Amino acid sequence: MGLLPFIICLWLFKLIGNDPEQLFNPQQAFQFYSVIILTFLAGTLWRKESNTIYSSAQIISNLFCLYAYIWLFMPLFYTLIFLPLGYVGLLATEYLLLQDRKTVTTSQYFIMRLTLTTAVVVLHAIALLAWF
Fold first, then answer.
1. pLDDT tens across 65-95, in order?
2. Contact 62/39 with Cβ under 8 angstroms?
3. What is d(CA 27, CA 90) in angstroms, rounded to the nearest whole number?
4. How far is CA 122 from CA 50, 81, 82, 84, in A?
5. Which member of 32, 54, 55, 94 has the lowest number of beta carbons within 10 Å of its beta carbon?
6. DSSP string covering 61-92, please?
7. 3-class SS letters over 10-45
8. Model confidence, pTM
9. What is the dihedral sign for C-alpha 122, 4, 37, 20?
10. Are 30 and 6 in contact (CB under 8 A)?
11. d(C-alpha 14, C-alpha 129), whole Å
12. TM spans, by residue (predicted)?
């Protein structure tokens, strides 16, 4: 379900374009939604435990949130290139923070995250190719 807003923005752009007179800007909505999702995913690194590993994860989480926030103010072209790098970087960070990396490839959660991250990166590539 989380992929639907990306797809709808791509579809709406094809349908209505990017007319400045329009009330809704599909490109801007795509950009904003992507930033929101990246910051939400970065928040999943937070844990209630206060040991060193999780404290580092909290700092890294905040860095990813700031990274995503910066792209709200950048041109869309660059946003479509650099936000996917944030998604991939976050997935890699999540993997590196795991205690037991041996079972990660069979973990349903990690398989889902890998699939969704790949889909988001592909949707950003489609947007980049369609809009520029």
1. 999 999 999 999 999 999 999 999 999 998 8
2. no
3. 23
4. 36, 11, 13, 9
5. 55
6. HHHHHHHHHHTTSS-HHHHHHHHHHHHHHHHH
7. HHHHHHHCCCCCCCCCHHHHHHHHHHHHHHHHHHCC
8. 0.89
9. positive
10. yes
11. 13
12. 28-46, 76-98, 110-131
pLDDT in tens, 24-37: 899 999 999 999 99
Residues 6+ positions from 93 with CB-CB distance below 8 Å: 45, 60, 64
Tokens of 24: 């809704």
Which candidate, 23, 68, 64, 61, places its Cα nearest to that of 45? 61
Residue 60: strand, helix, or coil: helix
Token pair listed for 18: 């990017």
Q: Give the other-Cβ count within 10 Å of 109's Cβ.
A: 9
